[in-house]
Protein backbone atom coordinates (compact mmCIF):
# COMPACT_ATOMS: atom_id res chain seq x y z
CA UNK A 1 0.00 0.00 0.00
CA UNK A 2 1.19 3.51 -0.73
CA UNK A 3 -0.37 6.73 0.46
CA UNK A 4 -1.43 9.39 -1.97
CA UNK A 5 1.41 11.88 -2.19
CA UNK A 6 1.44 14.16 0.83
CA UNK A 7 0.04 17.66 0.58
CA UNK A 8 1.89 20.86 1.43
CA UNK A 9 -0.22 22.70 4.00
CA UNK A 10 -0.28 26.46 4.49
CA UNK A 11 -1.80 28.05 7.58
CA UNK A 12 -2.24 31.76 6.88
CA UNK A 13 -3.23 34.33 9.50
CA UNK A 14 -5.18 31.74 11.50
CA UNK A 15 -6.37 32.78 14.95
CA UNK A 16 -9.02 31.07 17.03
CA UNK A 17 -11.34 32.61 19.58
CA UNK A 18 -13.90 30.25 21.11
CA UNK A 19 -17.53 31.16 21.75
CA UNK A 20 -16.81 31.80 25.44
CA UNK A 21 -14.17 34.38 24.48
CA UNK A 22 -11.11 32.14 25.08
CA UNK A 23 -8.36 33.20 22.68
CA UNK A 24 -6.74 29.82 21.94
CA UNK A 25 -4.60 31.08 19.04
CA UNK A 26 -3.39 34.52 18.04
CA UNK A 27 -3.27 34.83 14.21
CA UNK A 28 -0.30 32.82 13.02
CA UNK A 29 1.34 31.60 9.82
CA UNK A 30 2.86 28.18 9.29
CA UNK A 31 3.92 26.07 6.33
CA UNK A 32 4.03 22.27 6.49
CA UNK A 33 6.15 20.88 3.66
CA UNK A 34 4.86 18.00 1.57
CA UNK A 35 6.00 14.72 3.11
CA UNK A 36 7.55 16.12 6.28
CA UNK A 37 6.71 15.30 9.89
CA UNK A 38 6.04 18.56 11.69
CA UNK A 39 5.71 18.35 15.47
CA UNK A 40 3.69 20.90 17.47
CA UNK A 41 5.34 21.01 20.90
CA UNK A 42 4.37 23.04 23.93
CA UNK A 43 2.89 23.01 27.43
CA UNK A 44 -0.73 22.19 28.16
CA UNK A 45 -3.17 24.80 26.91
CA UNK A 46 -0.77 26.53 24.46
CA UNK A 47 -3.05 25.84 21.48
CA UNK A 48 -1.49 22.76 19.83
CA UNK A 49 -4.73 20.81 19.57
CA UNK A 50 -6.63 23.86 18.36
CA UNK A 51 -4.10 24.39 15.55
CA UNK A 52 -4.31 20.71 14.59
CA UNK A 53 -8.11 20.84 14.55
CA UNK A 54 -8.01 23.92 12.31
CA UNK A 55 -5.83 22.01 9.84
CA UNK A 56 -8.16 19.00 10.07
CA UNK A 57 -11.31 21.03 9.45
CA UNK A 58 -12.78 20.28 12.88
CA UNK A 59 -12.67 23.99 13.77
CA UNK A 60 -12.94 27.11 11.62
CA UNK A 61 -10.41 29.92 12.10
CA UNK A 62 -11.41 33.45 13.07
CA UNK A 63 -12.25 35.77 10.16
CA UNK A 64 -9.27 36.34 7.87
CA UNK A 65 -7.60 32.98 8.58
CA UNK A 66 -7.05 30.57 5.68
CA UNK A 67 -5.88 26.97 5.32
CA UNK A 68 -4.50 25.77 1.98
CA UNK A 69 -3.66 22.24 0.82
CA UNK A 70 -1.24 22.33 -2.13
CA UNK A 71 -2.18 25.96 -2.68
CA UNK A 72 -5.95 25.26 -2.80
CA UNK A 73 -8.06 27.05 -0.19
CA UNK A 74 -9.82 24.41 1.95
CA UNK A 75 -10.90 26.77 4.75
CA UNK A 76 -14.59 26.18 4.04
CA UNK A 77 -14.27 22.40 3.56
CA UNK A 78 -15.30 20.10 6.42
CA UNK A 79 -12.97 17.31 7.57
CA UNK A 80 -14.50 14.62 5.35
CA UNK A 81 -13.70 16.66 2.23
CA UNK A 82 -10.06 17.35 3.16
CA UNK A 83 -8.83 13.77 2.90
CA UNK A 84 -6.88 13.76 6.15
CA UNK A 85 -6.40 10.88 8.58
CA UNK A 86 -6.62 11.58 12.31
CA UNK A 87 -5.24 9.68 15.29
CA UNK A 88 -6.16 10.67 18.84
CA UNK A 89 -4.85 9.83 22.29
CA UNK A 90 -8.14 8.04 23.02
CA UNK A 91 -8.19 5.61 20.12
CA UNK A 92 -11.78 6.54 19.08
CA UNK A 93 -12.32 3.06 17.60
CA UNK A 94 -15.64 1.18 17.50
CA UNK A 95 -15.21 -1.22 20.45
CA UNK A 96 -17.48 -4.01 19.31
CA UNK A 97 -16.41 -4.08 15.66
CA UNK A 98 -13.54 -6.25 14.45
CA UNK A 99 -10.14 -4.73 13.77
CA UNK A 100 -10.48 -5.11 10.00
CA UNK A 101 -13.96 -3.52 9.99
CA UNK A 102 -12.65 -0.60 12.00
CA UNK A 103 -9.82 -0.07 9.53
CA UNK A 104 -12.20 -0.43 6.55
CA UNK A 105 -14.73 2.00 8.05
CA UNK A 106 -13.42 5.13 6.32
CA UNK A 107 -13.41 3.30 3.00
CA UNK A 108 -17.04 2.28 3.55
CA UNK A 109 -17.99 5.89 4.20
CA UNK A 110 -16.28 6.74 0.90
CA UNK A 111 -18.40 4.17 -0.96
CA UNK A 112 -15.67 1.55 -1.60
CA UNK A 113 -17.24 -1.92 -2.14
CA UNK A 114 -17.03 -4.60 0.61
CA UNK A 115 -14.48 -6.92 -1.00
CA UNK A 116 -12.16 -4.13 -2.01
CA UNK A 117 -12.30 -2.34 1.32
CA UNK A 118 -11.51 -5.53 3.22
CA UNK A 119 -8.58 -6.20 0.90
CA UNK A 120 -7.24 -2.67 1.34
CA UNK A 121 -7.72 -2.80 5.10
CA UNK A 122 -5.91 -6.16 5.23
CA UNK A 123 -3.03 -4.60 3.28
CA UNK A 124 -2.63 -1.77 5.78
CA UNK A 125 -2.82 -4.19 8.74
CA UNK A 126 -0.10 -6.33 7.13
CA UNK A 127 2.05 -3.25 6.61
CA UNK A 128 1.69 -2.43 10.30
CA UNK A 129 2.44 -6.06 11.22
CA UNK A 130 -0.89 -6.63 12.94
CA UNK A 131 -2.53 -8.75 10.23
CA UNK A 132 -2.98 -11.56 12.75
CA UNK A 133 -5.35 -9.36 14.78
CA UNK A 134 -7.78 -8.69 11.90
CA UNK A 135 -10.75 -10.59 13.28
CA UNK A 136 -10.36 -9.58 16.95
CA UNK A 137 -12.74 -7.16 18.57
CA UNK A 138 -11.22 -3.85 19.73
CA UNK A 139 -12.04 -4.59 23.37
CA UNK A 140 -9.81 -7.68 23.12
CA UNK A 141 -6.70 -5.62 22.31
CA UNK A 142 -3.97 -4.00 24.40
CA UNK A 143 -3.45 -0.23 24.37
CA UNK A 144 -0.49 -0.46 21.99
CA UNK A 145 -2.42 -2.71 19.62
CA UNK A 146 -5.38 -0.32 19.68
CA UNK A 147 -3.15 2.58 18.77
CA UNK A 148 -1.70 0.61 15.85
CA UNK A 149 -5.26 -0.08 14.66
CA UNK A 150 -6.14 3.62 15.00
CA UNK A 151 -3.09 4.48 12.90
CA UNK A 152 -4.00 1.81 10.32
CA UNK A 153 -7.51 3.20 10.12
CA UNK A 154 -6.21 6.72 9.53
CA UNK A 155 -3.85 5.50 6.78
CA UNK A 156 -6.32 3.17 5.05
CA UNK A 157 -8.07 6.01 3.21
CA UNK A 158 -4.71 7.06 1.72
CA UNK A 159 -4.93 10.56 3.18
CA UNK A 160 -2.99 13.56 1.92
CA UNK A 161 -1.96 14.28 5.48
CA UNK A 162 -2.09 12.47 8.78
CA UNK A 163 -2.79 14.46 11.93
CA UNK A 164 -1.83 12.91 15.26
CA UNK A 165 -2.87 14.33 18.63
CA UNK A 166 -0.73 12.90 21.46
CA UNK A 167 -1.21 9.35 20.09
CA UNK A 168 1.23 7.77 22.57
CA UNK A 169 0.32 9.60 25.77
CA UNK A 170 -1.96 6.86 27.13
CA UNK A 171 0.70 4.14 26.78
CA UNK A 172 3.40 3.15 29.27
CA UNK A 173 6.94 4.44 28.78
CA UNK A 174 8.54 1.35 27.19
CA UNK A 175 5.70 0.84 24.73
CA UNK A 176 5.64 4.55 23.95
CA UNK A 177 9.27 4.49 22.91
CA UNK A 178 8.82 1.33 20.84
CA UNK A 179 5.75 2.61 19.02
CA UNK A 180 7.42 5.97 18.50
CA UNK A 181 10.14 4.21 16.50
CA UNK A 182 7.54 2.33 14.46
CA UNK A 183 5.56 5.48 13.68
CA UNK A 184 8.74 7.26 12.67
CA UNK A 185 9.74 4.46 10.27
CA UNK A 186 6.23 4.26 8.84
CA UNK A 187 5.82 8.00 8.21
CA UNK A 188 9.22 8.09 6.52
CA UNK A 189 8.47 5.08 4.36
CA UNK A 190 5.13 6.50 3.23
CA UNK A 191 6.55 10.03 2.83
CA UNK A 192 3.19 11.32 3.97
CA UNK A 193 2.73 14.81 5.38
CA UNK A 194 2.25 14.45 9.14
CA UNK A 195 1.44 16.96 11.87
CA UNK A 196 2.07 15.50 15.31
CA UNK A 197 1.01 17.13 18.58
CA UNK A 198 2.89 16.36 21.77
CA UNK A 199 3.99 17.97 25.03
CA UNK A 200 6.88 15.47 25.29
CA UNK A 201 10.19 16.95 24.15
CA UNK A 202 11.87 13.55 23.64
CA UNK A 203 9.07 12.52 21.30
CA UNK A 204 9.32 15.80 19.41
CA UNK A 205 13.11 15.55 18.99
CA UNK A 206 12.90 11.91 17.86
CA UNK A 207 10.04 12.26 15.36
CA UNK A 208 10.12 15.75 13.94
CA UNK A 209 11.74 16.83 10.70
CA UNK A 210 10.89 20.22 12.14
CA UNK A 211 9.45 21.29 15.47
CA UNK A 212 7.09 24.18 16.16
CA UNK A 213 7.41 25.24 19.80
CA UNK A 214 4.23 26.98 20.95
CA UNK A 215 3.47 29.25 23.88
CA UNK A 216 0.20 31.01 24.79
CA UNK A 217 -1.44 30.51 21.41
CA UNK A 218 1.58 31.71 19.44
CA UNK A 219 4.67 30.21 17.80
CA UNK A 220 7.83 30.65 19.88
CA UNK A 221 10.20 28.95 17.41
CA UNK A 222 10.16 26.79 14.28
CA UNK A 223 13.27 24.74 13.55
CA UNK A 224 14.87 21.34 13.09
CA UNK A 225 15.25 19.32 16.29
CA UNK A 226 18.94 20.33 16.37
CA UNK A 227 18.15 24.02 15.96
CA UNK A 228 15.50 24.01 18.66
CA UNK A 229 17.74 21.99 20.96
CA UNK A 230 21.04 23.78 20.49
CA UNK A 231 19.88 27.23 19.38
CA UNK A 232 16.68 27.93 21.32
CA UNK A 233 15.16 31.27 20.30
CA UNK A 234 14.61 32.36 23.90
CA UNK A 235 14.58 31.28 27.53
CA UNK A 236 11.11 29.72 27.24
CA UNK A 237 12.13 27.37 24.43
CA UNK A 238 15.40 26.56 26.20
CA UNK A 239 13.56 25.64 29.40
CA UNK A 240 10.93 23.64 27.60
CA UNK A 241 13.42 21.56 25.65
CA UNK A 242 15.57 20.60 28.65
CA UNK A 243 18.63 21.51 30.76
CA UNK A 244 20.39 24.59 29.56
CA UNK A 245 23.23 26.57 31.01
CA UNK A 246 23.02 30.35 31.03
CA UNK A 247 25.71 33.00 31.20
CA UNK A 248 24.88 36.72 31.29
CA UNK A 249 27.19 39.33 29.80
CA UNK A 250 27.71 41.58 26.79
CA UNK A 251 28.93 41.15 23.22
CA UNK A 252 31.59 43.48 21.87
CA UNK A 253 33.78 42.99 18.81
CA UNK A 254 32.93 39.30 18.36
CA UNK A 255 33.57 38.48 22.02
CA UNK A 256 30.99 37.61 24.64
CA UNK A 257 32.31 38.87 27.98
CA UNK A 258 30.97 37.40 31.21
CA UNK A 259 32.32 37.22 34.75
CA UNK A 260 33.91 33.82 34.14
CA UNK A 261 35.78 35.01 31.03
CA UNK A 262 35.44 35.43 27.29
CA UNK A 263 33.77 33.37 24.54
CA UNK A 264 34.30 34.15 20.84
CA UNK A 265 30.88 34.60 19.16
CA UNK A 266 29.48 35.65 15.79
CA UNK A 267 27.11 38.58 15.40
CA UNK A 268 26.70 42.24 16.27
CA UNK A 269 27.55 43.99 19.53
CA UNK A 270 24.92 43.78 22.27
CA UNK A 271 25.24 45.58 25.59
CA UNK A 272 23.09 42.92 27.29
CA UNK A 273 23.21 39.32 26.14
CA UNK A 274 22.60 35.85 27.49
CA UNK A 275 24.52 32.83 26.23
CA UNK A 276 22.69 29.48 26.32
CA UNK A 277 24.38 26.10 25.93
CA UNK A 278 23.81 22.43 26.74
CA UNK A 279 26.09 20.37 28.98
CA UNK A 280 27.25 18.38 25.96
CA UNK A 281 28.24 21.55 24.06
CA UNK A 282 31.01 22.27 26.59
CA UNK A 283 34.40 20.58 26.98
CA UNK A 284 36.45 20.76 30.18
CA UNK A 285 40.18 21.50 29.94
CA UNK A 286 43.05 22.88 32.03
CA UNK A 287 42.33 26.58 32.84
CA UNK A 288 45.11 28.18 30.74
CA UNK A 289 43.67 26.72 27.53
CA UNK A 290 40.17 28.18 27.94
CA UNK A 291 38.51 31.57 27.83
CA UNK A 292 36.11 30.61 30.64
CA UNK A 293 37.26 29.44 34.07
CA UNK A 294 35.09 27.95 36.82
CA UNK A 295 35.51 26.08 40.09
CA UNK A 296 34.55 22.40 40.27
CA UNK A 297 31.78 22.07 42.84
CA UNK A 298 30.52 18.52 42.50
CA UNK A 299 31.40 15.45 40.43
CA UNK A 300 29.00 12.56 39.79
CA UNK A 301 30.44 9.43 38.24
CA UNK A 302 27.88 7.98 35.83
CA UNK A 303 29.80 5.11 34.27
CA UNK A 304 30.25 6.18 30.67
CA UNK A 305 30.95 9.75 31.74
CA UNK A 306 30.91 12.19 34.65
CA UNK A 307 28.40 14.92 35.31
CA UNK A 308 30.16 17.95 36.71
CA UNK A 309 28.66 20.93 38.50
CA UNK A 310 30.74 24.10 38.16
CA UNK A 311 30.43 27.35 40.05
CA UNK A 312 31.33 30.85 38.94
CA UNK A 313 31.26 34.23 40.60
CA UNK A 314 27.85 35.72 41.33
CA UNK A 315 26.21 32.38 42.01
CA UNK A 316 26.53 31.08 38.43
CA UNK A 317 26.01 27.33 38.24
CA UNK A 318 26.94 25.31 35.15
CA UNK A 319 26.23 21.65 34.39
CA UNK A 320 28.87 20.02 32.19
CA UNK A 321 29.96 16.55 31.14
CA UNK A 322 33.43 15.05 31.23
CA UNK A 323 35.00 11.76 30.10
CA UNK A 324 34.93 9.09 32.83
CA UNK A 325 38.74 9.04 33.16
CA UNK A 326 39.24 12.79 33.65
CA UNK A 327 40.45 13.59 37.17
CA UNK A 328 38.42 16.40 38.67
CA UNK A 329 38.65 17.43 42.29
CA UNK A 330 36.04 19.60 43.97
CA UNK A 331 37.53 23.04 44.61
CA UNK A 332 39.91 22.89 41.63
CA UNK A 333 39.80 25.43 38.82
CA UNK A 334 38.81 24.14 35.40
CA UNK A 335 38.53 25.70 31.94
CA UNK A 336 35.48 25.41 29.70
CA UNK A 337 35.57 25.47 25.88
CA UNK A 338 32.22 25.88 24.10
CA UNK A 339 31.45 24.41 20.69
CA UNK A 340 30.60 27.53 18.62
CA UNK A 341 28.03 25.57 16.59
CA UNK A 342 26.08 24.70 19.70
CA UNK A 343 25.75 27.97 21.57
CA UNK A 344 22.88 30.43 21.31
CA UNK A 345 22.83 34.15 22.14
CA UNK A 346 19.49 35.57 23.19
N1 LIG B 1 -14.13 24.39 22.75
C1 LIG B 1 -13.46 25.23 23.52
N2 LIG B 1 -14.06 26.28 24.12
C2 LIG B 1 -13.37 27.16 24.89
N3 LIG B 1 -12.06 27.09 25.11
C3 LIG B 1 -11.38 26.07 24.54
C4 LIG B 1 -12.05 25.08 23.71
N4 LIG B 1 -11.11 24.20 23.29
C5 LIG B 1 -9.93 24.60 23.82
N5 LIG B 1 -10.09 25.72 24.56
C6 LIG B 1 -9.04 26.48 25.27
O1 LIG B 1 -8.11 26.93 24.32
C7 LIG B 1 -6.78 26.89 24.83
C8 LIG B 1 -5.92 26.01 23.95
O2 LIG B 1 -6.36 24.67 24.05
P1 LIG B 1 -5.69 23.47 23.26
O3 LIG B 1 -6.49 22.26 23.52
O4 LIG B 1 -5.48 23.87 21.85
O5 LIG B 1 -4.28 23.36 23.98
P2 LIG B 1 -3.18 22.24 23.91
O6 LIG B 1 -1.89 22.94 23.72
O7 LIG B 1 -3.55 21.22 22.90
O8 LIG B 1 -3.23 21.65 25.38
P3 LIG B 1 -3.21 20.12 25.90
O9 LIG B 1 -1.81 19.64 25.71
O10 LIG B 1 -3.60 20.28 27.35
O11 LIG B 1 -4.22 19.40 25.08
C9 LIG B 1 -6.91 26.38 26.25
O12 LIG B 1 -6.95 27.49 27.10
C10 LIG B 1 -8.25 25.67 26.25
O13 LIG B 1 -8.81 25.66 27.52
Automatic annotation (TrEMBL):
GO molecular function per UniProt: ABC-type transporter activity; ATP binding; ATP hydrolysis activity
Location in the cell: Cell inner membrane
InterPro entries in UniProt: AAA+_ATPase, ABC_SmlMolc_Importer, ABC_transporter-like_ATP-bd, ABC_transporter-like_CS, Mo/tungstate-bd_C_term_dom, P-loop_NTPase, Transp-assoc_OB_typ2
Domain ABC transporter: residue ranges: 9-241
Primary site of residence: membrane
Ranges that cross the membrane: none
Gene3D superfamilies for this protein: P-loop containing nucleotide triphosphate hydrolases
Listed GO CC annotations: ATP-binding cassette (ABC) transporter complex
Keyword Membrane: no
Keywords linked to the UniProt accession: ATP-binding, Nucleotide-binding, Transport
Protein topology in the membrane: Peripheral membrane protein
Family: Belongs to the ABC transporter superfamily.
Protein name stated in the entry: ABC transporter ATP-binding protein
